[in-house]
Amino acid sequence: MSRFAPQTLDQWVEELSDMKAVSLGAVIQELNRLTASDETSLNELADAIMKDPGLTGKVLKAANSVAFNPQEIPVTTISRAIMHVGFDTVRALCVGALLAEQLLGPEASDQLVTRIAHAITAATQARKLCRGFRSQLREEVFVATLLYHLGELLVWSYPHPVVDRASRMLIEQNDVRAAEKVLGVRFAELSRTLAERWRLGQILEEALGQPASKAARAVRLGEDIARALPQGLDSPAMKACITEACKVLGLDERTVTEGIREGIQEAESLGRSYGDARLNAVLGQQTRSHMTPKTGQGKLLEPDSSLQLKILQDIMQAMSTGMTSTELFRHVLDGLHRGVGLERICLALLNPQRTQLAARIVVGEGTETWKTRFVFPYERQRGSFWYDIMQTPGIVWLGHPDHVRLEGAVPPALRALIGPGQGLMGPLVTQGREIGLLYADLRSSGRPLNQAYAGGFRYFVQQANLCLNLMAQRASRA
């Protein structure tokens, strides 16, 4: 650290380049080079990551999280992580882990922790807006948004009394320009210069300038949404963000709104993988502030055939450009909830030994405890309720005359959990091997199921199985 704080753009760039932060730019450049080349092998990318033990640990932790690995298949090496979630997603995980490794620590100021939490939130929000983007472009948007305030983050990590004074001024006066005057540099200009000098990506450079492409505008929109979140999901600022996202990206309002809620939860999940208690606290408080039950507080959900069709088309488009099983499951649950109108939904998957069936993703009011209570032993023999469900062609409609035998075999623990009434179950099978099931009902409102709900449920179960089999075929050829 210099005895005198930098006071111009050039001085800040030179000083930051002498800090450990320069390794951040170097590693990101290398990741960009490797993931941009069609000739890069899995081992080359793995070797680049494993040069940094701290980075390796954080990437493996994220790759083993429910957000990226709902089937809980143990991922113990970087090579397996790349195979499981894909090149582009691993790159995105690396950049987030690099930020955490380089900037977070016991000496990090509260201002820095808060701004990193903002960057993670903005990045997850931007990625949620990229429905229909190919996988590589979606993750490039995520990385660009994560690095959008790189200059500011590096300044707050710079140990100097002048930086401390600027930080106090920002907290007390909420005046970014006044803090920038003390520091002698505009944060946006510093970020733009570092992005160009460290070659951090074309989308980031465009977003920091005059964004014209949908990808660069998605970066800006993710940033705007993160900035509007403290004002509330129903605030005028957030409504303006939603309107702009619909206009720029061709999305409908319900899709954007649900994506914002999903992004809030994903930001907290991703933040946990970085292992910083203060970061976890900021993101956790954000989730608690905004994630409140909605079902039953307004209009009842009803089947929407046009939205179902759109989500099914989105799934097939995403499949053509590359999609992970986690992304597929989230699309399917989104379709079942918003498109089909089902109120409570659970994705339950078998463990690798196929001895236990457990909830991995749940949606709807009253499902808060399902992740810990929807856990059942699985026996591969006839007469076992769960095995018989898996062997049933199509779907099972509990409470319907066609499925009286299975209705009578419902385990008492399951009945106690879901309550009385009708429900739908659909087995998930890949290349003849059962992997889990989908469950859904209307028990929040107490309404009966009908053919419209059952038909929509059947379509999404069929689509999920089709995509899972396509993924398995691609993996076997890789």
TrEMBL record:
<dbReference type="InterPro" id="IPR013976">
    <property type="entry name" value="HDOD"/>
</dbReference>
<protein>
    <submittedName>
        <fullName>HDOD domain-containing protein</fullName>
    </submittedName>
</protein>
<dbReference type="Pfam" id="PF08668">
    <property type="entry name" value="HDOD"/>
</dbReference>
<feature type="domain" description="HDOD">
    <location>
        <begin position="21"/>
        <end position="214"/>
    </location>
</feature>
<dbReference type="InterPro" id="IPR052340">
    <property type="entry name" value="RNase_Y/CdgJ"/>
</dbReference>
<dbReference type="InterPro" id="IPR029016">
    <property type="entry name" value="GAF-like_dom_sf"/>
</dbReference>
